[in-house]
Design goal:
The chain is mostly helical. About 90% of the residues lie in helices and about 0% in strands.
């Protein structure tokens, strides 16, 4: 094979490798976006559970008092 043909083959291989790398990077970033969205949802849910627990009654007497006061 001539040196010119080797140069063309090398360029084609280089372009294919570059395209493959870009494709794989795009796939992984799409997965990362989905994971970030799921993590945000999980954090919001956990925060609301923690807030409800922090503002809730501590004992059964507190529950009775809040039910009588109408502040439940």
């Amino acid at each position: 094979m001539t040196p010119r043909l080797w140069l063309i083959v090398g360029a084609v291989v280089l372009v294919l490798v570059g395209a493959g790398a870009i494709y794989l990077e795009g796939r992984s970033s799409g997965g990362n976006v989905a994971r970030v969205d799921q993590l945000k949802t999980t954090n919001e849910t956990q925060r609301s559970i923690t807030d409800a627990d922090a503002h809730g009654p501590r004992t059964s007497d507190d529950v009775d008092r809040r039910l009588r006061d109408g502040s439940f």
